[in-house]
Amino acid sequence: MNAPLRSNPNDLILSRDEVRAIDAAAIKTLGIPGLMMMENAARSTAQQLPDLDPSRLVTILCGPGNNGGDGLAVARQRAAGGSSSRVFLETAGKPLSTDTRSNLEFLTNSGVNVQILNDSSDCGKLLADMAPDDWIVDGLLGTGVHGELRSPFSLWVEAINASPAQVLSIDVPSGLNCDDGSCGNQCVQANVTVSFVGMKRGFLTPSAAKYTGRIVIGHIGIPLAWIHDWLIRYRETES
After folding, report:
1. Could you tell me if 225 and 202 are in contact, meaning their C-beta atoms sit under 8 angstroms apart?
2. CATH classification of 3-238 is 3.40.50.300, yes or no?
3. 202-224 pLDDT, tens digit each
């Protein structure tokens, strides 16, 4: 009965708490650094933007948390393959997470420009040049979201949804509650969502489909068999 979980990450359906606990356990028990998992997440995401016409604009929007760190790493992964990206980092006046700050340093030290914002009142104008064949990578907010978004993130989500560009969300569309699939006041409407480790529970809610678009499960370097065995023990303990 458990064998499919060992071979197919699409069979993993995870809550927000389980995803976070898996990350923490992988760091503590397996010794996999958080930065390595972020790098693998970025590689899985960048693979969904292959061989784009060089004339197409890719805009990567990053928040101050680890979701934003994934976005910064995606920009570097693309640069490593010779592809350019326009990168905006919306701090909202908040400190960056440790791994996000590291990825910002990696990116800027390599000469890739990052426009750092703490007031995005002109976010619609910043995306005004996007065309239908362009891509926006949504790395603003991750699994921690519940309830309504506040400015500036609500303004960013509004601007993303008003843009004609294609949208790829990292892990979860910004604004979507990944446990129950609900949307507060604003949620990114993605064409593609790259969800890490497994399917988020809320994505199975029928109303979530308009926000997630096509869902791709990307790995972050944790062996699937280990996740399966760990999850059984975790659920037994929590039940």
Report:
1. no
2. no
3. 999 999 999 999 999 999 999 99
